[in-house]
Specification:
Chain B: This is Immediate early response gene 5-like protein. The complex is a heterodimer of chains A (456) and B (403). With 456 residues, chain A is mainly beta. Chain A is 5% helix and 41% strand. Chain A is built from four helices and 32 strands. In chain A, the strands form nine sheets. In chain A, strands 1-32-31-30 form a four-stranded antiparallel β-sheet, with no helix packed on it. Chain A has a four-stranded antiparallel β-sheet with strand order 2-3-4-5, with no helix packed on it. A four-stranded antiparallel β-sheet of chain A has the order 8-9-10-11, with no helix packed on it. The radius of gyration of chain A is 24 Å and the shape is globular. The relative contact order of chain A is 0.15. Chain B has 403 residues and is an all-alpha fold. Chain B has a domain of 45 residues. A two-stranded antiparallel sheet of chain B has the order 1-2. The longest helix of chain B is centred in the N-terminal third of the chain and has 35 residues. Chain B is globular. Chain B starts with 6 loop residues before the first helix and ends with a helix. The chains are: A mainly beta (456), B mainly alpha (403). At the A-B interface, β7, α3 and α4 of A face α1, α2 and α12 of B.
Chain lengths: 456, 403
């Protein structure tokens, strides 16, 4: 009885982002900073939430697994511990174009589990790989022709026969590349998305989107191509793409101009003509040198229900209803105080940062990152928002995080932080929300923080 | 944390970004470079607008000091012997007589060049939008609405007056504006254009006779016209729509298509600018003034109709007084090659010479061999670079493609 009650309140996110009290749970990664290869570049929970994968700039994938605990008596949910680490991509050199191909993992997407093994797709700028992660906790022992250490026995010395048996061993998690999808993208891959049919997936680069079958590596279908005949006429690029969670024929892609196009693959083989175009007219009073930059969409995510989608541009998060194209239904300002600082942010390149965003399991709260290791949550029902900080200062487990506030101008109150003292090198670009529970993973530059809601 | 929202500094910052992206791991990032080029273009627009406003202001001041009888109806750009008829022509009142001219020759020339640049840009915008330009939008003659319609509508085709009789400034690109002094179809130049720069650009018929080429035909509006600076909306309106991207202007560029691996060399018209008044571009000085509008690629665009009088190899820009106030005559130089890079130059210069090798001849002249000594010390190379960038923005996209 008690179990059911607590689970339900967790699932529906009672009160949403603000009524939940978020507590520190864990932090992963080195304490001392600045190893470039450790910079986390993507974070993704799997479909059950039991596994949490991160990719980094050095091409490695680290998977954490949640401990299974007896939930009835738990005072907190299971911890996430390292489950598997493997090198997914290596740096390459394209000799034809004299280009180095970075090994940085741009995206990881999990496949739903079909058998004992787990599968995920990971991609760098040019190549997508399908990895199988499997456990081995038994091994055969008692071979007739082999010693235990593997040396072969002389058959003439065998006097008896026995049947080899499986004996338990220390758990070993193996990752092996099962498919490599290469040579299909001229430009840098920014997104991959698995179709709801679980057989196909799309990959998107700056100008094209390709459709793959998970079993077939030597060909893919090009479904969107926005490359102009004359590159001088280039005005926009594709910045993100995603399949609809339920309709296997529908996908969206966002552009650097702040538009989102929804395409139906049934309409034609090449989906250059969108079925729907989502665009909000620009506010002319906000026009500046950097208008084009800050309107560029950095991430697009469908809600779990499939009714809404969320886009992130530099200063705001917008929720769109798929049935209404001319404007978003909700807009949340993430850090509007930066609007007057755009010039400096342009100089130090921060204006090009690509923030991601995510939904909670019930689509009632959305979350995105900001600077100074702040991240923001917006409750769509209560319209309240909260700013929290991922910092090692609060690293006692179950320490409740204190809401933070940035003072945009004028008199700074106690505990507020002024805009000028924000650290723009500490940015949270990647966040993920557990699909079912109030557990979030927040990546700072090279640390991964896990927060949970307070469970009494 | 503040930085100067100065158009020129933005331009140099942007150029530096594009240059450094070339050496970053992972190759050129198309998205980031595209966004940087948008900033470049916006900064350029503002720079032009500001320059124009300032020159106009200066012109206005100077004009107010003139005795009234110097007011002309025509734009007398020039020779002291000009008939004193139409001086008061709105913002680009270039002065009514020899006196004024002698006083501010540089400013006037600047204004004129700036105007031409602006006209051309508007025409490019027009072309990008593929507006069918109505031939001679004879919306109204010099009518009252023009006065209130903002600066653009008053942009005289000042630029347009042909030096009727031997202007002292050689090669002043003037084209006939008024029906009076020059043979021109009256409707086009006299047409009133609404405030919207695009619409006014549309007034300049692409097939206008050669003499009227880069014309945003503007009204011969009544003298009391508001200064461009006083109609800020105009300059904001000058921000291009994103689809205008693709402003191009360089003489020759080599492009490598990443998909087909085909290398093509594209020749475009060359957009002159006040800092590059020398006839370095191969396309200037060739033949009669062409129509103002050219297609996006592979066309030679004539910019200074008067340029044809100049020798192609003429390197002396001094005679034209073609320098921005306080600037240095821009001596053209041979196109810098990567091998010619001098490590002991200032960082900007080294970047610029690398940029030149990337972008091709669109940037020739960026690195000046030796700036002429004039009233001012030689400007920083970054400043030169910025000025050049204002003229030739289209090379950026090709730079991206080239890698």
């Amino acid at each position: 009885m008690f179990l059911k009650f607590s689970l339900r309140s967790v699932f529906y996110g009672a009160g949403g982002g603000n009524d939940i009290q978020w507590c520190f749970s864990q932090v992963k990664g080195a304490v001392d900073d600045d190893v470039a290869e450790d910079i986390i570049s993507t974070v993704e929970f799997n479909h059950s939430g039991e596994l949490l994968a991160t990719g980094d700039k050095g091409g490695r994938v680290v998977i954490f697994q949640q401990e299974q605990e007896n939930k009835i008596q738990s005072h907190s949910r299971g911890e996430y511990n390292v489950y598997s680490t493997f090198q997914s991509h290596e740096p390459e050199f394209d000799y034809l174009k004299s280009l180095e191909i970075e090994e940085k993992i741009n995206k990881i997407r999990w496949l739903p589990q079909k058998n004992a093994a787990q599968f995920l797709l990971s991609t760098n700028d040019k190549t997508i790989k399908l990895w199988k992660i499997s456990e081995r906790d038994k091994r055969p022992e008692g071979y007739n022709l082999k010693e235990e250490d593997g040396r072969y026995r002389d058959p003439t010395t065998v006097t008896t026969l026995r049947v080899p048996v499986f004996r338990p061993m220390d758990l070993m998690v193996e990752a092996s590349p099962r498919r490599i999808f290469a040579n299909a993208h001229t430009y840098h891959i920014n997104s991959i998305s698995i179709n709801s049919d679980y057989e196909t997936y799309l990959s998107a680069d700056d100008l094209r989107i390709n459709l793959w079958h998970l079993e077939i590596t030597d060909r893919s279908f090009n479904i969107v191509d926005i490359k102009p005949a004359n590159m001088e006429e280039l005005t926009e690029v594709i910045t993100a793409a995603e399949f609809h969670p339920n309709s296997c024929n529908t996908f969206v892609y966002s552009s650097s101009k702040g538009t989102i196009r929804l395409c139906d693959m049934r309409a034609s083989a090449l989906c250059d003509r969108h079925s729907k175009l989502f665009e909000e007219p620009e506010d002319p009073s906000n026009r500046s040198f950097f208008s084009e930059i800050i309107s560029s969409i950095s991430d697009v995510k469908f809600s779990h229900s499939g009714r809404y989608m969320m886009t992130r541009d530099y200063l705001s998060v917008k929720i769109w209803d798929l049935n209404m194209e001319n404007r978003p239904v909700e807009t949340y300002q993430v850090h509007e105080y930066l609007r007057s600082k755009l010039c400096s942010l342009y100089e130090n390149d921060c204006i090009f940062d690509k923030f991601e965003c995510c939904w909670n399991g019930s689509d009632s709260v959305v979350m995105t990152g900001s600077y100074n290791n702040f991240f923001r949550m917006f409750d769509r029902n209560t319209k309240r928002d909260i700013t929290l900080e991922a910092s090692r200062e609060n690293n006692k487990p179950r320490t409740v995080l204190k809401p933070r506030k940035v003072c945009a101008s004028g008199k700074r109150k106690k505990d507020e932080i002024s805009v000028d003292s924000l650290d723009f090198n500490k940015k949270i670009l990647h966040t993920a929300w557990h699909p079912k529970e109030n557990i979030i993973a927040v990546a700072t530059t090279n640390n991964l923080y896990i927060f949970q809601d307070k469970v009494n | 944390m503040e930085c100067a929202l100065d158009a020129q500094s933005l331009i140099s910052i942007s150029l530096r970004k594009i240059h450094s992206s070339r050496t970053q791991r992972g190759g050129i990032k198309l998205h980031k470079n595209l966004l940087v080029s948008y900033v470049l273009r916006n900064a350029r627009q503002l720079y032009l607008s500001e320059r124009y406003a300032e020159l106009y202001r200066r012109q206005q001041q100077q004009q107010q000091q003139q005795p009234p009888h110097h007011q002309h109806q025509h734009l007398a750009y020039a020779a002291p012997g000009m008939p004193a008829s139409a001086a008061d022509f709105g913002p680009l009142q270039l002065g009514g007589g020899g006196d004024a001219e002698a006083r501010e020759p540089v400013a006037r020339h600047q204004l004129h060049q700036l105007h031409q640049l602006h006209q051309l840009h508007l025409q490019q915008q027009l072309h990008q939008h593929q507006h069918p330009a109505p031939r001679g939008c004879a919306a109204a003659a010099a009518g009252a609405p023009a006065g209130g319609a903002g600066a653009l509508s008053e942009l005289p085709g000042c630029a347009a007056l042909q030096p009727p009789h031997g202007a002292p400034h050689r090669g002043q690109p003037l084209e006939p504006l008024q029906p009076g002094p020059a043979p021109l179809p009256p409707p086009a130049p006299a047409a009133l254009c609404p405030r919207d720069p695009r619409a006014s650009a549309a007034c300049s018929a692409p097939s206008a006779p050669p003499g009227a080429a880069p014309q945003a035909a503007t009204a011969a509006s009544p003298p009391a016209s508001p200064a461009p600076a006083s109609s800020p909306g105009f300059y904001r309106g000058a921000y291009p729509a994103p689809s205008d991207f693709g402003v191009h202007c360089s003489s020759q560029t080599t492009v490598l298509d990443l998909d087909t691996h085909v290398v093509t060399t594209v020749e475009n018209g060359y957009l002159h600018q006040d800092c590059c008044a020398s006839a370095h571009c191969p396309c200037c000085g060739q033949g009669a003034p062409g129509p103002g509008l050219a297609s996006a690629a592979g066309c030679k665009r004539k910019y200074y109709p008067g340029q044809e009088e100049e020798d192609d190899d003429d390197e002396d820009a001094g005679d034209l007084g073609a320098e921005p106030p306080g600037g240095v005559p821009f001596a053209p130089c041979k196109r810098a090659r990567f091998e010619d890079f001098c490590p002991d130059s200032s960082p900007d210069a080294s970047n610029i010479s690398n940029l030149i090798s990337i972008f091709g001849s669109g940037f020739s002249g960026l690195v000046s061999r030796q700036p002429d000594s004039s009233e001012q010390p030689p400007p920083l190379n970054g400043q030169l670079c910025a000025k050049q960038a204002l003229a030739s923005l289209g090379a950026w996209t090709r730079a991206i493609v080239a890698f």
